[in-house]
Structures are given as C-alpha cells and as structure tokens.
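Retry 2 of 3 after timeout on previous attempt. Resubmitting structure tokens to design endpoint.
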C-alpha cells in the first residue's frame, strides 16, 4: 500500500496547484474562484523519495455551506484516509480566523501533520512563516506551489515521518 498524503486547508490557498505540481498533472482544477475543485481528487505523487497517493480535498460544495461544514467533511476524510496531512495556509492572506479554527480541529486528530505556508514566492520566506507559528503545529514549511520552491524538501520531511 502506498502512503496517503492529504492536502487540507481553506479554499484558494493553493491545494490544487500543489497537487498538480506533486503529481506532475493538471488534473486538479486551479482557479481564483474557490469551489471549482471537484469534491475529492486522487493522484500519484511523483516528487519525493518514492510514490505516494496524494489527495486534494476540494473546495466548497455549495455557497450556502460554511467553512464549518466544509471542514467537517474534509477532516473526516483526512482522518479516515490519510497517513499524513499537509495543512496549507497562504502567506498573502496571513493567518486567518479560518486557519486558526482548522488548526484547532487538526490538532485534536492526533494525525501526523505538516504546516505548509504556500505562496512564499510573494514575500521573504522567513517573514512568510513567522505569522503561522501561533497555529501550534510546529515549524511551518515555506513553499511556492507555482514555482516549486521548497516542495521537494517538504516531501522529504514527510517521508521521514511516515
Ligand atoms: P485551492 O482552492 O486551495 O485548491 O487553490 P488553487 O490551487 O485553486 O489556487 C488558488 C489561486 O492561488 C490560483 O490563482 C493559483 O494560481 C494561486 N496560487 C497557488 N499557489 C501559488 C503560489 O505558490 N504562489 C502564488 N503567487 N500563487 C499561487
Ligand atoms: Mg482546489
């Protein structure tokens, strides 16, 4: 069985962009409009020490549905399936109330989790991660999904924990 690594986080942080980079596909729909990602997307991760199953937990199913319901489903899936969670946040937006709420839920799961600060191409990587230590999920990993920065290092780290 291949290890299962699951991308989680609020819409628009770059989960699908990272999925596409790690799987070397364009299977996950990337857009500025949250909610376009299909409900759940599976692929084979190809960047890293070995193959793995990558899961992109999509966006919001209906606009009436709040972050609470979205996270309920995402977290449930993550618990059921994942060997490791990648919790993505966005340095452009900084640490949002939704991020704090998601982090609280994730910490309760007791699953291995890495905090990934995406879009670090938009600022100094040191500054990018500084805001997110307060999520209590350890040292954040700065990446740029669009440019591929920090991505291999992140997956190497994850494999070290599998
Ligand atoms: P998702 O909703 O979490 O799946 O986010 P998407 O992958 O659809 O990306 C949302 C937006 O963020 C898109 O416009 C992406 O091009 C952009 N984006 C994703 N990753 C990066 C990144 O590393 N740097 C920058 N500057 N933009 C990014
Ligand atoms: Mg998406």
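Retry 2 succeeded. Sequence:
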């Amino acid at each position: 069985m291949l290890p299962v690594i699951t991308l989680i986080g609020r819409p628009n942080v770059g989960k699908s962009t990272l999925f596409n980079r790690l799987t070397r596909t364009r299977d996950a729909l990337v857009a500025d409009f949250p909610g376009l990602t299909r409900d759940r997307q599976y692929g084979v991760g190809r960047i890293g020490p070995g193959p793995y199953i990558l899961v992109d937990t999509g966006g919001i199913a209906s606009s009436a549905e709040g972050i609470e319901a979205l996270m309920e489903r995402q977290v449930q899936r993550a618990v059921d399936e994942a060997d490791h969670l990648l919790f993505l946040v966005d340095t452009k937006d900084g640490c949002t109330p939704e991020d704090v709420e998601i982090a609280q839920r994730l910490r309760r799961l007791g699953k291995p989790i890495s905090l990934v600060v995406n879009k670090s191409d938009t600022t100094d990587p040191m500054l990018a991660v500084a805001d997110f230590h307060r999520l209590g999920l350890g040292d954040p990993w700065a990446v740029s999904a669009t440019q591929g920065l920090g991505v291999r290092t992140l997956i190497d780290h994850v494999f070290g924990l599998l």
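Attempt log closed. DSSP finds five helices and six strands in the chain.
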